[in-house]
């Protein structure tokens, strides 16, 4: 790795980059919390309106107009809209991670004046970024390996949502319970199987997104600090 007389300058750039990482994920987390609060409020108001309505005292059948309306809006605000929100927000938050990781590597390219660029390294996406930091920047990433493995699991969930319509059967010759991501999805308290006996899953709690954001932010900032320390040696 070639040393660079302008390293202090690039160190300042990367320190500023810390704020970019934090602000990016703060916006996503604030949005997630705010929208979760909004849907919770909608759900409470819906329940309150049905309980307070005089019609509920005389009409108990699900075929009544009131109960049909309740069922319709209940499905929207308890299932459909929250699922769309959480899946789309998670996809956006993972895309933000990919973008920030690639940007970090490209800024590092300038910081070390390496002739070997990110695009020259084998791999795709975040794996290519990690390979670049290991092989070219020569960073020791052992202490972020736990977060890295966690991020790879998040990536698998992201890919299943984007490319497989939130289903996890990828080999029809293998039983449901032996599919690669079955145990992870079943055991994760922030995910749930949508219908019993199927492989259709959904993000059921916004904590899944918030915990991802914390992990991605922590991972990127640790790597950032490692890069700065390496340049200042």
How would you sum up this structure, described in words?
The protein is mainly α and 233 residues long. It has one domain (7-227). Helix content is 67%, strand content 3%. It is built from 6 helices and 2 strands. The protein has helices at residues 7-52, 65-112, 125-135, 145-164, 182-187, 207-231, and strands at residues 191-193, 201-203. It has a two-stranded antiparallel ribbon with strand order 1-2. Strand 1 (191-193) and strand 2 (201-203) form a beta hairpin. It is globular. The two termini are 12 Å apart. The mean pLDDT is 86.
In summary, what is this structure?
The chain is mostly helical. About 65% of the residues lie in helices and about 5% in strands. The protein has one domain.
Q: How do the helices and strands line up, and which of them pair or pack?
A:
Blueprint: H1 7-52, H2 65-112, H3 125-135, H4 145-164, H5 182-187, E1 191-193, E2 201-203, H6 207-231
Antiparallel strand pairs: 1-2
Helix pairs in contact: 1-2, 1-6, 2-3, 2-4, 2-6, 4-6
Tell how many strands the DSSP assignment holds: 2
What's the assembly state of these chains? single chain
Mean pLDDT score: 86
Instruction: Let me know the largest β-sheet.
Output: 2 strands, antiparallel
> How many H/I helices?
6
- Apparent shape: globular
**Backbone structural class:** mainly alpha
* Structural domain count: 1
């Amino acid at each position: 790795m070639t040393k660079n007389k302008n390293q202090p300058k690039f160190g300042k750039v990367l320190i500023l980059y810390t704020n970019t990482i934090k602000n990016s994920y703060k916006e996503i987390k604030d949005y997630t919390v705010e929208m979760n609060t909004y849907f919770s409020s909608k759900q409470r108001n819906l329940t309150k309106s049905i309980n307070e309505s005089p019609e509920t005292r005389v009409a108990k059948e699900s075929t009544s107009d009131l109960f049909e309306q309740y069922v319709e809006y209940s499905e929207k605000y308890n299932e459909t809209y929250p699922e769309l929100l959480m899946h789309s927000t998670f996809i956006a938050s993972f895309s933000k991670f990919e973008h920030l990781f690639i940007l970090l590597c490209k800024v590092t390219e300038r910081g070390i004046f390496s002739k070997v660029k990110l695009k020259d390294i084998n791999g795709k996406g975040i794996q290519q970024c990690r390979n670049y930091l290991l092989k070219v920047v020569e960073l020791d990433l052992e202490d972020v390996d736990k977060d890295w493995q966690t991020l790879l699991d998040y990536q698998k969930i992201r890919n299943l949502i984007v490319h497989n319509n939130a289903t996890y059967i990828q080999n029809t010759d293998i039983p449901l319970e032996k599919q690669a991501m079955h145990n992870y999805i079943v055991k994760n308290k922030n995910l749930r199987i949508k219908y019993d006996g199927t492989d259709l899953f959904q993000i059921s709690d916004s904590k899944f997104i918030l915990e991802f954001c914390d992990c991605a932010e922590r991972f990127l900032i640790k790597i950032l600090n490692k890069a700065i320390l390496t340049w200042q040696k």
